[in-house]
């Protein structure tokens, strides 16, 4: 159901205000500061209408690294829930119908940087029972398929009526669920390269979190796909170009008639750093995968280079076996650099992790910032703590030692792909 502005009546939204009375009736209201924003510097309120879901607060302009959740008001008739991870993951904090919490620093949470729930919530429901995530059954996570009409199939809980399927931000379809099964068959060929799918289950207009799967459309011959930066993105002049390639040894890159160089394919990943950086302005770069005398069809990306205040690089340290899981731990130092001003609120991340990877528990148990994506969906995304500590100082740097648990050992894992840092104030 939509309101007079065409917006879903259950869609979360952000308002500004101070005081418990600013929580709208019939909603679950999340305040950015203790005591309902009274007396503190922050005044944002994330409002989740009854039957609404906020699977990732950042989607609504309520960024955990800047705003956080420090007090809540449950003005609904349902027992609602806060979660420490996006998409209804991590630890849970029930908030009973008609109650409120004026200071989340008084609610203990083991393993958080402050040992409390203050600023830790990243996802929430405005109703009592979460909808279970749907499950992908085909294609398998990380699969390489030559079937250009590869169907997408899955299962859902018995009381789920439909599944919403997305590729990145684009909705592919609304799929009915019959006998707990759902299916999507494309009416055109999948483009060659990487595909990132997400599915949400719907029960009586209430949605689940997102389940993810990544697969690759390939050919017997070389295939290349540029995955970073995105078309139209603005990046730092020192940014790298990264992607995936199949049945290839290297990737050649050109800009117009100018040869930029080549990148070695490690496993299926590749990354290219332009010597001397990109000149400010627009760039259109073409990539072709090569194996012997065979060359792939080109993939092209257009982006704008600009000098950013926040930049990032990394260093691989070492790897060793985790005897508890028999998997392998890889250690990296990620370093962010600030230019002409401090960066108090930031995100840093990387991707292209193989299936079965995740941030290692020794890191997740001790990291002082926000873990927004833990690598289990192929991507890692970290955020600064909301209090504005761990600043990247003007003209200085901030180091983070990150530990990733991989399913196997591989030379490709010594590299971080699609590494980026973003100042949330820019």
Brief description of this entry?
By secondary structure, the chain is mostly beta strands. It has one helix at residues 361-364, and strands spanning 13-16, 27-31, 44-49, 53-54, 71-74, 80-85, 89-95, 100-101, 123-125, 135-138, 144-145, 152-155, 162-167, 170-176, 181-184, 193-203, 206-207, 211-217, 223-228, 234-236, 240-246, 250-255, 258-264, 269-273, 281-291, 294-295, 299-306, 310-322, 327-338, 346-351, 358-359, 370-374, 380-383, 397-406, 417-423.
Structure characterization notes:
This protein is mainly β. It folds into 4 domains: 13-125, Gamma-B Crystallin, domain 1 (Sandwich), CATH 2.60.20; 135-217, Immunoglobulin-like, CATH 2.60.40; 223-306, Sandwich (Immunoglobulin-like), CATH 2.60.40.10; 310-423, Immunoglobulin-like, CATH 2.60.40. 1% of the residues lie in helices and 47% in strands. The chain is built from 1 helix and 35 strands. Strands 11, 13, 14, 16, 17 and 18 form a 6-stranded mixed sheet that branches. Strands 20, 22, 23, 25, 26 and 27 form a 6-stranded mixed sheet that branches. The two termini are 35 Å apart. 41% of the residues are buried. This is Bacterial Ig-like domain-containing protein. InterPro entries: Ig-like_fold. Residues 1-21 are annotated as: Disordered. Residues 1-10 have a biased composition (Basic and acidic residues).
Give the secondary structure arrangement, pairings included.
Blueprint: E1 13-16, E2 27-31, E3 44-49, E4 53-54, E5 71-74, E6 80-85, E7 89-95, E8 100-101, E9 123-125, E10 135-138, E11 144-145, E12 152-155, E13 162-167, E14 170-176, E15 181-184, E16 193-203, E17 206-207, E18 211-217, E19 223-228, E20 234-236, E21 240-246, E22 250-255, E23 258-264, E24 269-273, E25 281-291, E26 294-295, E27 299-306, E28 310-322, E29 327-338, E30 346-351, E31 358-359, H1 361-364, E32 370-374, E33 380-383, E34 397-406, E35 417-423
Parallel strand pairs: 11-18, 20-27
Antiparallel strand pairs: 1-3, 2-3, 2-5, 4-9, 5-8, 6-7, 6-9, 10-12, 12-15, 13-14, 13-16, 16-17, 16-18, 19-21, 21-24, 22-23, 22-25, 25-26, 25-27, 28-29, 29-34, 30-33, 30-35, 31-34, 32-33
């Amino acid at each position: 159901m939509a309101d007079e502005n065409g917006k879903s009546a259950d869609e979360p939204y952000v308002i500004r205000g101070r005081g418990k009375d600013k929580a709208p009736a019939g909603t679950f209201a999340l305040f950015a500061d203790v005591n309902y924003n009274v007396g503190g510097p922050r005044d944002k309120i994330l409002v989740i209408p009854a039957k609404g879901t906020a699977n990732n607060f950042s989607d609504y302009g309520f960024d955990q690294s800047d705003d956080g959740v420090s007090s809540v008001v449950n003005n609904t008739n349902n027992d609602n829930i806060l979660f420490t991870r996006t998409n209804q993951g991590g630890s849970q904090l029930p908030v009973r119908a008609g109650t409120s919490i004026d200071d989340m620093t008084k609610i203990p949470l083991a393993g958080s940087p402050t040992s409390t729930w203050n600023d830790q919530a990243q996802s929430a429901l405005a109703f009592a029972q979460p909808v279970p995530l749907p499950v992908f059954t085909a294609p398998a996570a990380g699969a390489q398929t030559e079937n250009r009409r590869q169907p997408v199939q899955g299962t859902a809980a018995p009381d789920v009526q439909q599944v919403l399927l997305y590729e990145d931000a684009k909705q592919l379809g609304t799929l009915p669920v019959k006998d707990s099964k759902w299916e999507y068959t494309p009416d055109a060929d999948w483009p060659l390269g990487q595909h990132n799918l997400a599915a949400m289950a719907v029960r009586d207009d209430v949605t689940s979190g997102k389940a993810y799967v990544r697969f690759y459309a390939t050919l017997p011959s070389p295939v290349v796909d540029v995955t970073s930066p995105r078309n139209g993105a603005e990046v730092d002049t020192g940014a790298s170009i990264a992607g995936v390639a199949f049945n290839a040894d290297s990737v050649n890159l050109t800009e117009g008639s100018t040869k930029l160089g080549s990148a070695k394919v490690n496993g299926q990943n590749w990354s290219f750093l332009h010597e001397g950086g990109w000149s400010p302005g627009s760039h259109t770069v073409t990539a072709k995968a090569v194996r012997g005398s065979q060359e792939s069809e080109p993939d092209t990306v257009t982006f704008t280079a600009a000098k950013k205040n926040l930049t990032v690089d990394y260093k691989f340290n070492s790897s060793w076996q985790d005897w508890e899981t028999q998997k392998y731990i890889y250690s990296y130092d990620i370093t962010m650099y600030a230019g002409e001003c401090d960066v108090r609120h930031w995100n840093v991340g990387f991707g292209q992790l193989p299936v079965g990877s995740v941030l290692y528990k020794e890191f997740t148990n001790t990291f002082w910032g926000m873990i927004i994506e833990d690598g289990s969906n192929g991507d890692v995304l970290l955020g600064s703590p909301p209090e504005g500590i761990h600043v990247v100082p003007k003209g200085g740097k901030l180091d983070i030692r990150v530990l990733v648990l991989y399913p196997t050992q591989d030379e490709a894992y010594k590299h971080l792909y699609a590494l980026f840092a973003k100042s949330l104030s820019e």
